[in-house]
Amino acid sequence: MTENQHIVLASIPRSYAQVFFSNYSFLGWLLLGISFIDWVAGTCGLIAVIAANTIAWLLGYSSEMINQGMYGFNALLVGLGTGLGFQPGWELFSITIFAAVFTLFLTLALEGILYKYNLPYLSLPFMFGMWMVMLASRDFQSLGLSERGIYTANELFTLGGKPLVDLYYSISHIDWPPSIRTYLLSLGAIFFQTNLLAGMLIALGLLLFSRIAFTLSVLGFSIAWGFYQLTGASIHELTYTYIGFNYILTAIAIGGIFLVPSFKSYLWTAILLPIVVMLTLSLGKVFLSFGLSVYSLPFNIVVITFVYVLKLQLEPEKGPVEVTLQENSPERNLYHFINTKQRFSNPNYLPVSLPFFGEWTVLQGHSGEYTHKDEWKHAWDFVITDDEDQQYRGDGDWVTDYYCFGKAISAPGDGTVAELLEGVPDNKIGDVNTHQNWGNTIVIKHSDYLYSKLSHLKEGSIKVKKGEFVKQGQNIGEVGNSGRSPYPHLHMQFQVLPNIGAPTFSYPLGQYILNN
Amino acid sequence: MTENQHIVLASIPRSYAQVFFSNYSFLGWLLLGISFIDWVAGTCGLIAVIAANTIAWLLGYSSEMINQGMYGFNALLVGLGTGLGFQPGWELFSITIFAAVFTLFLTLALEGILYKYNLPYLSLPFMFGMWMVMLASRDFQSLGLSERGIYTANELFTLGGKPLVDLYYSISHIDWPPSIRTYLLSLGAIFFQTNLLAGMLIALGLLLFSRIAFTLSVLGFSIAWGFYQLTGASIHELTYTYIGFNYILTAIAIGGIFLVPSFKSYLWTAILLPIVVMLTLSLGKVFLSFGLSVYSLPFNIVVITFVYVLKLQLEPEKGPVEVTLQENSPERNLYHFINTKQRFSNPNYLPVSLPFFGEWTVLQGHSGEYTHKDEWKHAWDFVITDDEDQQYRGDGDWVTDYYCFGKAISAPGDGTVAELLEGVPDNKIGDVNTHQNWGNTIVIKHSDYLYSKLSHLKEGSIKVKKGEFVKQGQNIGEVGNSGRSPYPHLHMQFQVLPNIGAPTFSYPLGQYILNN
Amino acid sequence: MTENQHIVLASIPRSYAQVFFSNYSFLGWLLLGISFIDWVAGTCGLIAVIAANTIAWLLGYSSEMINQGMYGFNALLVGLGTGLGFQPGWELFSITIFAAVFTLFLTLALEGILYKYNLPYLSLPFMFGMWMVMLASRDFQSLGLSERGIYTANELFTLGGKPLVDLYYSISHIDWPPSIRTYLLSLGAIFFQTNLLAGMLIALGLLLFSRIAFTLSVLGFSIAWGFYQLTGASIHELTYTYIGFNYILTAIAIGGIFLVPSFKSYLWTAILLPIVVMLTLSLGKVFLSFGLSVYSLPFNIVVITFVYVLKLQLEPEKGPVEVTLQENSPERNLYHFINTKQRFSNPNYLPVSLPFFGEWTVLQGHSGEYTHKDEWKHAWDFVITDDEDQQYRGDGDWVTDYYCFGKAISAPGDGTVAELLEGVPDNKIGDVNTHQNWGNTIVIKHSDYLYSKLSHLKEGSIKVKKGEFVKQGQNIGEVGNSGRSPYPHLHMQFQVLPNIGAPTFSYPLGQYILNN
């Protein structure tokens, strides 16, 4: 099996786990299993994930994003929703594939737009894809409506034998209080499985993945439930439409994923949930007139708006603490925050060193304020200069005249090689290769959402492979003059995405000594 | 009372006045009074203003924007609209607060997006907030519907005694021509007060605030009225829905706020109003199918699109003259334009001098075209150099080696200190403080929408306080090396917002002598 | 006739041709003729085109864009649609003009937003304008509904005499297979002419303009027809609403305009068409509830999203080949691609030389990576330096001290002068003219969508006129110091739009020799 097939395979469970903001494969496999309680839904979900991830990979989008399930989870949800209502057949499967491709394109386009604002696209692509399928499918007379509801027991029998069927019925016959019953059904509805067994299994998976996430899901649902009671809104709407998953997802997202779990993050969860309820009720009326569900639109609107508003704060220390390095779990986000707070005066950062040894000149540090602006503003350019402030010996007409050319580059921190670009020739002095902007480049992943990129390396000098683990200080290549580089220098930047060409991310270097 | 409490208090009347693009407190108090003709609406409006402004202040958004009422007026309108239809009670008041918070978040988010295009957000946030409340409240059975209409006389009696009641009835019994009657009711409807007394009081307030704005409101309404007659559109729709405030607001905005009042600005008002009528009729049908009003959506669409289109002109002198420094009143906008036109060859500018005395080197003037790009393109960096073009004596290893370090900075023009950042340590040479980008900084407000910012000042050198008035040339601090500054220099820029970190604004310096 | 009247006149046929992505005047005149089969529709279309192009020209928007019909085709479609349903009269004509102005403003605003993403606005402005007119006109009781359908023969007689009438009837009476009949009616519907004669004439025009476009139109329609059959969707919806033009336009746009015609471009056409069908069916239901047509919305969504997604590819060589220089015809796009591929190792480029002779210093080549960022990143600044790396003799206090000042500039390639700005004085050294950023400037059009701009030229030095043809190497002006230029230098950039101030476009210079 090649490396590439491995990427698409590994992306499958993560595409399931990402629905709960996680990249934890075990959770993904569990959710995949649950999705097969309705085997047609499960199959369509799987088809959609594989279609989206394969096409993303064929077209050459970031293998790291594919691997993390970031391009698959919206298509997955569309697949599950499509499969649920119809009889299986090649019409259904081909419609699922086209819907998955469309959802993938919406994912990529929304990623392109929203990352300019440093915002997540959440499940926006899913909703547009799903609405399209739901409306169009009313015309598709070749698609038979599903009659599987009555055969659930048979399917459970296939999946898990008699014990599973017995479990299903015993759970169904428990006399649950309405609030817990609705909570479990809403949880199941996230995967289009509105039965108590699915809800309980998902609650279990959530508890295993993160106790904070689980308690937030309960807290969020409870606040919403209380607000329905206070305002006299019909609790039946909540009980029968399962729309309550908006409250669960919002609580997890605000309380533990986008904010560091703390009293403030819980307070904001409590403030935002009544707003999510009001949006759910109001948007529900609009979409109902077209016979559509709002799905997770209220959750998306509130979370994206709130995260954006926090980024616009002039004095961020007055608001709640945002998660700067997404660890994909509330516990890990909290641990990382506390850990770095104890070790550094400036919390939220892990130490990264300079990518070389000895004395270099920080060309861009010197004019750092003026350049590397906007999306590319957090970058450094390094050269070596002599006593006369010259970067080269002789006339500087040849790359080999430059002191830094061919000097060893070391990994700025522990990590794995996420992206690699090789085979770009070194330019003659003054030439610029505008077609392959960054030249030979190594991107190292230090943590989820912290990557460092080293560019313009010497052709043939790269000593590491994609996926290889590197230690801080390990020699990984040499300074060169490839790409958009008129004379030899080393470009280094941090970024939150693995893409070569991704925007930079403000991240302080470990202390260095500077002579001028 | 602390300075901060003062900011929230001062923001209250201005949040009312901003509905008419004004920051004139007297107009605000008058409108606040009028809003209490329905005391529940008035109370909810006030609650919403206070909630939005307090939260904006607690989260650390620009105190200048809060002070001007810019973050309050959309929440105010949502509060007024929410209060109008329901019986008072703690359910109503808590719903009002949540709606106000949501509207504030929408305001901040839309500000973030639209200021990238240099466009105003007008009342867009109000509409989204109001639609949400209107739709959701149909489910809120704890909210009793208002029955106050029949007790208006009682409430007027409370507000102003028998004379006010008599006035109310005598105005109601006048046999107004339908056009004037509709004009006054539309004017009242801006504050959700659809009665003739409110309309007359608002007309009076408008007349006191600006005679141009008042005449524009009449002109705009008349053109729209005429277009209804021409096309045979039902005048009853205009008479009974009060939607005519769109025509009034558009006329004021185009005729005197965003354009300098002139023949051309009136001509464009006349061209755009039939378009606003057509949009009002068409959008009205779409929203009616959800049982909603379009509110001021047509006004928002036409004004924002038109202002944006003017900014895209290649030869701006061919179009109408845009207001560059918003003075928040057509008269003041016109006066400013005429005044500066007489005094300078290049109209629209008031003179600002360099922020120091003696001979400095304009580092960024020299490379001005290449750097300070995009949003930050209109900035200068100043240093002092010696005869050998060196910025420092000795080796330049210490900040004190640099000629400019510690040199006095003077206010570039009259104004008040709008924002202040202190306590950032001066960097060692070559170090860059990426966390506090601008370092110690003074922002001076010279006029509404003209601020100058001086950055990287020496720690502890700032000689002024926030809110203090400064004269041109007054010593306000010293050049330092704080923030994203690898070596001592002074950064200066103009901007239209008080925020530290706001985009720059193209504004010419008063003439200076330059040696090279 | 002045040059300017000429621009508006020349823009008329091209505004018609642009509906098929063409700037081929003959196709435009043909389509104009066809539009007069319903003479009121034809008249309103013509009024709208003239109104939009005249106002764009009066307000000083790019005369090149006007000339190409880029600002007229959306207004044209709105005019045709408005005229179709109503009786002629001055009410109809004035409504047409206001709708055309609104559509123009939408065109300009969408251009401003979408060009930041390098995306086309296609017919988005038309749809918003058309929906507004369709909804609002229900209220316009002065507008009589058209009863012209029954008089088509009379109108055809006026246009082309008895032969045309006979042709019309003989075509109508042919027993067409339903698919061909629907194809022809859908083709006619693009110009709001749902009759077989119009469809046949348009098919003929398309065939003359481009055989690839014609075959793509058939292919796209066939795939969609097949997908209807496969899914059991009602073919009647396609037969009676003429909505099939979405499939025709998508196939031409993807198969031959935005992608270079090839197996891959046809494959993507085939993949995307079922998605367009699903979008058409689903959006159709939403718009039907307002009594509106979706017009070309599905085509717009799919094409714009797909083109955007291709631009976000990390490894573009994995996807289909995008057209980099739009030649406005599939054949010319293909020819250009093959031709340049044979002649250069780097396909898609035609050779352009440096705009001067002798030895210059590439100031921005040297720091090319750091500056000219974002939209303006592909630019060069040239100066002349002496052996001591000085740009001037003496003190450099006067522009005439600079070696490059007054040096001859030559056209970097064959082309015509597209824009010209003259009369900006040369600055004193160190002064910067922030009001007229680019100073005296020449923009040369080398091909559709490839322009070069030379800026900061010496006042009075420009030797060419707007519209003049220039040969590569021809002397066109002299280096100066006008605009945002503190000292004499030449700014050169490539761009895809003629506007002075347009974003730059990455385009390699022909080889040059560089000394350092």
Structure description:
The structure is a homotrimer of 516-residue chains. Chain A is built from 17 helices and nine strands. Chain A has 516 residues and is of the alpha+beta class. A seven-stranded antiparallel sheet of chain A has the order 1-2-9-6-5-4-7. Chain A has a two-stranded antiparallel sheet with strand order 3-8. In chain A, strand 5 and strand 6 form a beta hairpin. Chain A starts with a helix and ends in a 21-residue tail after the last strand. Chains in contact: A-B, A-C, B-C. At the A-C interface, helix 6 and helix 7 of A face helix 14 and helix 15 of C.
Short précis:
3 copies of one chain form a homotrimer. Chain A is α+β, with helices and mostly antiparallel strands and 516 residues long.
Key structural traits:
homotrimer, Ammonium transporter fold, Glucose Permease (Domain IIA), 3 domains, 7-stranded antiparallel sheet, two-stranded antiparallel ribbon, elongated
CATH class category label of the largest domain in chain A: Mainly Alpha
Quote the beta fraction of chain A.
Answer: 5-15%
| Count of helical regions of chain A | 17
Shape of chain A: elongated
- Rounded radius of gyration of chain A (Å): 26 Å
Mean pLDDT of chain A: 81
- In CATH, the architecture of the largest domain in chain A is Orthogonal Bundle
The quaternary organization reads as homotrimer
Largest chain interface and its two residue counts?
A: A-C, 60 and 50 residues
Number of domains of chain A: 3
Order of helices and strands of chain A: HHHHHHHHHHHHHHHHEHEEEEEEEE
